[in-house]
Amino acid sequence: MNLKQATEIGKCLSNQTRFQILEWLKEPEKNFPPHETLKHFNDGVCVTYIQEKAGLSQSTISTYLTNMEKCGLLISTRHGKWSYLKRNEETIKQFTDFLI
Amino acid sequence: MNLKQATEIGKCLSNQTRFQILEWLKEPEKNFPPHETLKHFNDGVCVTYIQEKAGLSQSTISTYLTNMEKCGLLISTRHGKWSYLKRNEETIKQFTDFLI
DNA sequence: TTAATATATCGCAATTTATAGATATGTTTG
DNA sequence: CAAACATATCTATAAATTGCGATATATTAA
């Protein structure tokens, strides 16, 4: 982790909705309904569920999630027409180590 | 630590200069010249030294430091006409615990 | 192949942030 | 008290971010 990447992560954490999404994704089973096709949360939560829970527009949430993936906070996995998002614990740990 | 406070901290960490200051303050002896009046860094580093090292205007740095103190990242101590800034390790720890 | 569904990207207006210069406040020193 | 110094605050402008609707792309279903 270097200063530039850490600052990119900081930018994602500077918005309450984005930060909240990261918190929700700590416990997908608790915060989101189960997926109909996948019977588990192994790859995280689909965009639509996150969008509905956040209450912002589809385009806004999609952009947020893309940014959060780019800076390393999230891992995105495609299954058919769905994208599933989960926390990238490794990068998050590197970020907190850098900060402390 | 709650979502609102964490996001305020995120805002401070969304700017490279502010993040850099926090990193510099990990090792004041290494990153700053010694103070003439105080022979130690117990209360941190004065505003002028931080401003000179950052290379931005006095007003900008003063605003940054004020914000960083307000959100809990820094602790400010006055000694006469100088303000000394140091990291608030307790809040930083609370922030990283909240994130992980 | 067409329609429906899920997600991504584009373009835009509104809001927020970045940063500086000017000025104000507070402290020390002559 | 006046001058000098350190820091804080105010005001203004440029730049970046927010968040949306429209549209594009990709995948599945009919």
From TrEMBL, chains A, B:
Key word Transcription regulation present: yes
Family matches, as CDD domains = HTH_ARSR
GO MF, any single term: DNA binding
Q: Which residues form the HTH arsR-type domain?
A: 1-100
What are the entry keywords? DNA-binding, Transcription, Transcription regulation
* PROSITE patterns, sorted: HTH_ARSR_2
Query: Per its UniProt entry, which superkingdom is the organism in?
Result: Bacteria
Against SUPFAM superfamilies, the record matches this protein to: Winged helix' DNA-binding domain
Which PANTHER family does the entry link to? TRANSCRIPTIONAL REGULATOR, ARSR FAMILY, TRANSCRIPTIONAL REPRESSOR SDPR
Protein name, UniProt field: ArsR family transcriptional regulator
The organism's lineage is:
Bacteria, Pseudomonadati, Bacteroidota, Flavobacteriia, Flavobacteriales
